[in-house]
Each structure stands twice: as C-alpha cells, then as structure tokens.
Amino acid sequence: MIATGADCVAMNVQSAIEKTSKGSTEHFDVLIVGAGISGVGSAYHLTKQAPGTSFVVLETQESFGGTWITHKYPGIRSDSDLHTFGYSFKPWTGPPIATAEEILHYMGEVIDENGLRPHIRYGHTITSARWSSQENLWTIEAVRKDTGETVRFTTGFLWMCQGYYRHSEGYTPEWRGMKEFKGQIIHPQNWPENLDYKNKKVLVIGSGATAATLVPAIAGDCAHVTMLQRSPTYFRAGRNAIEIAETLRELDIDEEWIHEIVRKKILFEQDKFTRRSFTEPEVVKQELLGGVRAHLGPDYDIETHFTPKYRPWRQRIAFIPDGDLFKGIKSGKASVVTDEIESFTRSGVLLKSGKTLEADIIVTATGFNLCVMGDIEFMVDNKPLDFADTVTYRGMMFTGVPNLVWVFGYFRASWTLRVDLVADFVCRLLDHMKTTGAHKMTPTLRPDDKDMQLGSWIDAENFNPGYMMRGIHLLPKAGNKPEWQHTQDYWAEKDEFPSIKLDDPAFSYS
Ligand SMILES: Cc1cc2nc3c(=O)[nH]c(=O)nc-3n(C[C@H](O)[C@H](O)[C@H](O)COP(=O)(O)OP(=O)(O)OC[C@H]3O[C@@H](n4cnc5c(N)ncnc54)[C@H](O)[C@@H]3O)c2cc1C
Predict the structure, then answer these.
(1) CA of 224 to the centre of ligand 1 (A)
(2) Which pTM was predicted?
(3) Which are the contacts of 74, defined by CB distance < 8 A and separation ≥ 6?
(4) 295-315: per-residue pLDDT in tens?
(5) Of 415, 418, 490, which is best to mutate to test ligand 1, by the most ligand atoms within 8 angstroms of its C-beta?
(6) What is the DSSP code (8-state) at residue 4?
(7) Contacts with 11 (C-beta within 8 Å, 6 or more apart), sequence order
(8) 409-419 pLDDT tens trace
C-alpha cells in the first residue's frame, strides 16, 4: 500500500526488504522502473520528500545511466547544457555540454552521496504489470538476467522512468539492396566496441544530433566521413562554456549559487528563444543560418545543406560545441550530401540524383524505435491495457490507470527539468493519500471533460521528429485543455505543477 508505516523510518534498507518480502514476492511502497536520469532523480526525491517510504528501482541493464550507458558511439555527448540537464539539487561544475562518461560520473555521485545504491537492482527486466483493485496493488514480474528466473514484486505505486525508446535496438529503415553491401552496417545504438574505422570511408546516414556528434568525432581518423541527409536540420554553434559561470567562479562564488544562477539565466534565454521561434520564425531561422555561415564561410552551399524546410523548434535543435562539425567540414575530412538513397550497392549507395557514394562502413543514424511503456504487458483488473486508449493527465498519468506516473520530459528544454517537477508532484500525492487514507487514485475525465475533443499525444504542427510520428498511434491521447496534455511548456508547468489541487475531481480516490 502507499501508506508508509512509521516503523519503516527506522529500518535500514536491507531489513526493510526482508521484512516486507512474502515468500518469493517482495513488497515495496513504490517501485521505480529504470535507472536512467529519471529513475535516479525520482529515487532521490522520494528519499528526501517521503522518507520512510520503501522502494526499489528495477533496471534491465547492468548499471545506471539509461541513455548514457546504452549509447557508446564515439563522441557521445549531451546536446543540452548540464546545468539544466543535471538535477536542480546537485551543481554541475564542468563545461555545459558533457560526454556520456561525465554524465555517468555525475549520476554515480548522486547515487553514492544519497545512499541510493542498495535500492537499485540491475539485470531485472520487467515483463508484466498487473493492477488489482481488490488488493490496491500492482504485481510486477521481472526476469533476472543472471539466473533467468522470474521474480515477483508488489507495490502500491508504479513510477515509470523507462524513457521513450527501445534500448535494445535502434530504428533502421529498409533500403533496397542492403544485403548486397559488402561492408559493415552499424546503428549507433549498437556500436561495436572495437569497430575499426581508421583510414576507412565512412558514410553516416542522418542529420540529427547523433550524426552531428559522430561525424566530427571520427573525422580525424577516417579516410573520409560523409554525412548523408535527406533534409537538413537546424544547428546552433557556440563555445562550450558559459561566460557568467566562468566569471562567478573567478569570484570564488559557491558552486550551489553558480548552478542556480546559471540555470535561471539559461532558462530565461531558452524561454525567450522558444517563444520567438513561434512569433518570429523567419528572424530566428536567419539567426541560426547566420551562425552556420559564420563557421562555413560565404562560399559554402548553406541553402542546400543547412536550411531546413520546417520552422525552428519543430524538431530538436542540436548544439554544436565549438563548431566541431563545421570544423570537420572545413578541414575537408568530412562532407555533407543532401540527397535520397535509391538503393544500397556492393560498395556504397546509389542516390536518387544518380550519384554514388562509396563506403567501407555505413552508419545508420536514423533514430529510435518509440517504446511506450518499456515493452511491459499491462493489465488493470484482469483487462489488458492499451495506453493508446487512455487520455493523459498532464503527460504523466492516464485515465483508468490507478497509482501510476510516467516521467516524460521536455523536448525543447532539458528532460530532467520535468523529472524534478513530476517528483515533487508524486511525493505530494503520496503524502495526500497517506493522510487521507486513500489506497487508489485513478485519473478520470470530469463531467465537463467528457465531450472534450481528443487528439494525439503531441501535435505534429508543434513538434514532429520521425520516431514520434512513426509511433504516435501507440501513445495516449491528449485533450484540448492543458491538464489533459503534455504541453511541453516548462515555463508554464513550473508554476502550474506545484499548484495542482490534489482534490481535483480529475483524481478519483478510493
Ligand atoms: C544520444 C542521446 C542524447 C540525448 N541528449 C539529450 C540532451 O542533451 N538533453 C535532453 O534533454 N535529452 C537528451 N536526450 C533524450 C534522453 O533520452 C533523455 O533526456 C533522458 O536521458 C531520458 O532519461 P530517462 O531516464 O527518462 O530514460 P532512459 O535514459 O531511456 O532510461 C530508461 C531506463 O529504463 C530501463 N528500462 C526500460 N524498460 C525497462 C524494463 N521493462 N525493465 C527494466 N528496465 C527498463 C532502460 O534500460 C533504461 O536504463 C538524448 C537522447 C539520446 C538517445
């Protein structure tokens, strides 16, 4: 149950686990799925804001990190700054754009400094989650990777931090003739540890953040690397440093203060930038293109290779630290081709324009497979649950699905900003349920919501990356009121979330 016994407070984690285990089924007040940036952040907030709540984090991989441990391709790094991608509660002291290794180190410190390690069980793949209204419990089954055994847990509250894409395999389109190609085809999500690309011709298909990271990272070693894109993406280039942070450090200001000030500054500027991308898209577009031109010079064909057809911010805008992608292009070690693939050949690809590109290795930086709830089979009271049949409450809960929250972050701001907001809400909700003696809370459409027009999880006019559009039918529906949408608006939600009324009729308690 959600109600947390006062006796739990005094117990250490291990004895809490022993006391609550019933035969082969262990019980926890809260079960967190996934030990990525969301799961670790949620666990932190739970220990601070709901002390005494027993909980476990189940993670299928062998360590924490999620995205940052799955992706091992050369150069892997964040595309947003770590002051806001990092947690509100732990200062980020390095350069704003960080490598996966630096992010993992930071997360490791959060885990150790806050005693989270004993709560996390690695090598546990959750396969099913069944809610029973008779018991007011979720029953979770997970397969242990070490023994192959299925283990069972019960929990009063399920905190879904499993991200939004399938970690085991990325998305690779089917092209004609792929089998003919004599070289290697690699998806960046499954980068082989010892891939030898030295002095080889590498073709990277894609134009998103992954391609833009990978190309400069390998350009120095390859014979040549070509970025082949169907259509261009917006990029922002700049120094990988934040001036105000450097100044404050020179003045010997505490890192806590620097973190807070820099976060405020970045968020203020991002807010302005995002709003301008809607109110004056053409001006913003010209600014972004101007930045690229400044790096590549007046003779480079920016019109063809770096001028997207969509308005800025309809897809994520990747930051290019120190303009490294453009430096690679200027050096002649990297180049961009904007064209479409007709077919693969034995030695590369044939393009629709009739040109061919030779390659020893082809990297398909073509995106993710959307995965709605971690490939877990869900049942509510013995009925299979399809999340696409539900309506989302603020992009975190779902009509008819009791005691469950999903952390789905922001696209135009750092994902982690929402980890903190959702965690504050969940801890408030758990406390409310405890004090009112409620065991179950189900988001429910209110009488005046019943005729509300329903649409897709995200409006394609607003934001439309490929993986979202491919999987939009799998995602919950949204309504036409902000409380029934994931608005993707951090700047509104930072004020709205703390004032969500827990006795709102949209929450049915029993
Ligand atoms: C290369 C790359 C760079 C990115 N850079 C940024 C950035 O700079 N800024 C930004 O805001 N966003 C970025 N993103 C988006 C990024 O995915 C999120 O910001 C964030 O890392 C998601 O964290 P998460 O913990 O919610 O999910 P994930 O990182 O996806 O972690 C989820 C975890 O849950 C586990 N899991 C899933 N299903 C199960 C199951 N059934 N049983 C047990 N465990 C399960 C997974 O193994 C994984 O460890 C990037 C994404 C990629 C791929």
Answers:
(1) 31
(2) 0.93
(3) 191, 214, 217, 218
(4) 999 999 999 999 999 889 888
(5) 415
(6) P
(7) 19
(8) 998 899 999 99
